[in-house]
Amino acid sequence: MNELISIVNLGLFQNTLRTATPVVLCALGCLMTDHVGMMNIGCDGMMLIGAFAAVMGSWVSGSWMVGILFGLMAGLLLGLLYGVFVIKFKSDEFIIGVALNIFAGGLTTFLLRELTGQSGTFHAEGGLSTLPRLQSDWLEQIPVIGQLLNNNTLLVYVAWALVAVCWVVIYRTPFGFWLRAAGEHPQSLRSAGKSPERMKYIASLLCGVLACLSGAHLSLGYLSTFSENMSNSRGFIAVACVIFGRSNPPKVFLAALLFGFIDALGMRLQSLGISSALTATFPYLGTVLMMVLLVWRNDRKKKRLARQTAKA
Amino acid sequence: MKRGHRPDYLLALGVSVGLALLLGAGIMALTGHPPLEGYQLMLQGAFGTPRAIGNTLAKAATLCLTGLATAIAAQAGIFNVGGEGQLYLGAMASAVVGAKLAGLSPWLGVPLALLAAMAAGGVYAWVPAMLKVKLRVNEVITTILLNSAAIYFCTYLTNGPLKTMERGISSGTDAIDPAFMFERLIRRSSLTESIFLTAAIAFLVWYVMRKTTAGFQMKLTGQNGRFAHYSGIRSDRLAVGSMVVSGAICGLVGMFEVFGLHGRFITTVSNEFYYDGMLVAMIVRYNPLGIILMSLFFGAMKIGGSAMELNAGIPSSLVVIIQSIIIFFMAAEQGIVSALRARHAQRKAAQTLRKEAQE
């Protein structure tokens, strides 16, 4: 029991925040597409390409800022690609998502070999310019919370800020209203003089940008390198978080934190001698369990409501 | 699919494949490799020697089975994206049975391993199917997540409780009885007797999907669940059943790898075999006959791609890029055609208007 208590420490929560961030950013992108009624399951591939583009940008220029810029450009391109196929050509979004994921795996592996001559994991000679950690002496003085919030990489704070920004934009601005209308009542939006297609394109571009930004965080902020298939299904966990949080940014954020907590807990359990391969299953099984619990709870709620209305 | 639409569809398929190969050539040219030589090497690598042909056929068999597994579920309106995990668990189950039953007659040992593999894959597919039917949990997401869980779990078993004590094996389970192994049909190729089983299963799946009531009901369910429901089809049961069959087939694919090639479970037993098969199935829109033919084409590309990488230094992942481009085109086929038609009609209308104005 003492051993179990010993794994719950500050490091656990620090790791929770760190592992959750790529998922948060990606999920924010994915929820945009969900609001306009086209759930993008190609997020994972977008994340992978974003991670690759960011590392290449940073490697070529020696600056992480260029890396991020490359990642954002890749995001715009991918968002456009997804948008053209799903909106203009009316393709099945599921098939396009799957194709995008497979395409991303092939493209990044191919380009890694062709551009750097390396395979597997990328090793930059002389090191890679990665995201700086932000430190504040003022935060450092607050116990626990200060240590939790301090000393993270830039995109972690950006992700937190974006959760709030996305919530405000989606639920408190006309733009967000049009966005949701494009998914729920495209006809009404059209009669109000706005084009649902245009809102869908914007959502898909935003999704590409945010998913690739999460990739950039993964490769330049979290792991400091690129390796083949490094997204490791995080994009799908992000999709699960979107479903779990009903596309509401703060709720999705909480879901991602929960996932991060399970992941971090798994890592801490390794110190008790539990195999790392076994603990690696936790986030995936945990996410599935989360989805099941959510649906089950909603089911019961619905049934209770139905019973009440029947009585009335 | 209506019969009258078939030529249209085949034309689209041909154009998509052609365009994707052209784009592939473009990528080769951009990265400084002569494209014609690349494709020639690919062709040679796939069919140049008896061994190459054997490897191509073996690859095609794997793609065919995984493709049919995708199709049988998709036809009933439930997507199995979790074949990779089911494959791993099937391989693991069969390897354990094959090692534990060493010494038994192959006539008993092999069928038991077969059953174990099918059961492992089937059960692992049953879980997300039940979640979908009972609780409406999105099966695409759950199956994908369960993939990662299964692969990590098998890695854990291979490096932990089931790790072999044999020397020189860094990561694998105990070897299965050599008497259980499938014979190789062409020397040094990966074509084994399992191809006959594959053929039998492929025929069976085609028969069930196209010639039986269950297959027809599946199709109805997949196309219009509500209509099927009101026609008295128990669509939920059908969806769960086809998902379990799909998982069982994936488990078998894993077993074929173990009993045909590796002789034990190793963590690299599959290299995204299921996703490759899923691509095949998607390209031909889950048509069983199409899957059988298309898997030959894709198998040749895969095997040829490795030869191309070896001989010309062109990364074989180019093949993956080409394949995914084919999917993009096929998924967008109708949209592109109608967009082109609309533009054509617009131009024609503009022309007639102009003519009328001149007159």
Overview of the structural elements:
- The complex is a heterodimer of chains A (312) and B (359).
- Chain A is mainly alpha-helical and 312 residues long.
- Chain A has a single domain, classed as Orthogonal Bundle (ABC transporter involved in vitamin B12 uptake, BtuC).
- Chain A is 77% helix and 1% strand.
- Chain A has 15 helices and 2 strands.
- In chain A, strands 1-2 form a two-stranded antiparallel sheet.
- The termini of chain A are far apart.
- With 359 residues, chain B is mainly alpha-helical.
- Chain B has a domain of 222 residues.
- Helix content of chain B is 76%, strand content 0%.
- Chain B is built from 13 helices and no strands.
- In chain B, α4 packs across α10, α5 runs antiparallel to α10 and α7 packs across α8.
- Chain B is globular and about 95 Å long.
- The mean pLDDT of chain B is 90.
- Chains A and B meet through α5, α12, α14 and α15 of A and α6, α11 and α13 of B.
Question: Percentage of helical residues of chain A?
Answer: over 70%
Largest sheet of chain A: 2 strands, antiparallel
Count the beta strands of chain B: 0
Global structural class of chain A: mainly alpha
Reading off the top of the CATH hierarchy, the class of chain A is best stated as Mainly Alpha
Largest sheet of chain B: none
Q: Measured on Cα atoms, how large is the radius of gyration of chain B?
A: 23 Å
The count of β-strands of chain A is 2
Helix content of chain B: over 70%
Strand order of the largest sheet of chain A: 1-2
- Going by CATH, the architecture of chain A would be Orthogonal Bundle
Structural class of chain B: mainly alpha
Q: Biggest interface between protein chains, with counts per chain?
A: A-B, 44 and 46 residues
Low-confidence stretches of chain B: none
- The fraction of residues assigned to DSSP E strands of chain B is under 5%
Under CATH, the topology of chain A can be stated as ABC transporter involved in vitamin B12 uptake, BtuC
N- to C-terminal distance of chain B: 46 Å
User: What is the approximate shape of chain B?
Assistant: globular
Rounded mean pLDDT of chain B is: 90
